[in-house]
Design a protein that fits this description.
- It is built from three helices and six strands.
- It has a four-stranded antiparallel beta sheet, covered by helices on one side. A two-stranded antiparallel sheet has the order 3-4.
- A hairpin with a 2-residue loop joins strand 3 and strand 4.
Length: about 110
């Protein structure tokens, strides 16, 4: 089996997270800029005299699929690199992946993600 790891992190931590790829010799990841809200709450500004709440903050979503035996080391590395100790450090979600297919070769399962 394989695991999909989705990490929502602070934008300034992206380069630190990318360094995990080389350190752990991982094959690939996807990065998306997203907006989110949580305990960090956002901020309030005055725009043309009106108070405006900005509850959604910019976050980075990092997605990667790894073999089951590599999942914990990847999760630990992301947690270590993304940590500041403040609200807004993010979250990591882990889910099972049933199968994967490399379109170019037709390889399936773990062979498709190596």
């Amino acid at each position: 089996m394989m695991k999909k790891i989705e990490a929502f992190i602070r934008p300034e931590k992206l380069e630190d997270i990318k360094s995990i790829m080389e350190e752990l010799k991982l094959n690939g990841l996807s990065v998306t800029q997203v907006m989110g809200c949580g305990n960090q709450k956002g901020w309030t500004e005055f725009v043309r005299g009106a108070e405006v709440d900005y509850n959604f903050l910019t976050k980075i979503k990092v997605e990667l699929v790894v073999t089951d035996d590599r999942a914990e080391s990847v999760i630990e590395a992301i947690t270590k690199k993304a940590y500041t100790g403040e609200y807004g450090d993010g979250k990591i979600f882990i889910s099972e992946i049933q199968d994967a297919v490399r379109i170019r070769t037709g390889e399936r399962g773990e062979d498709a993600i190596k």
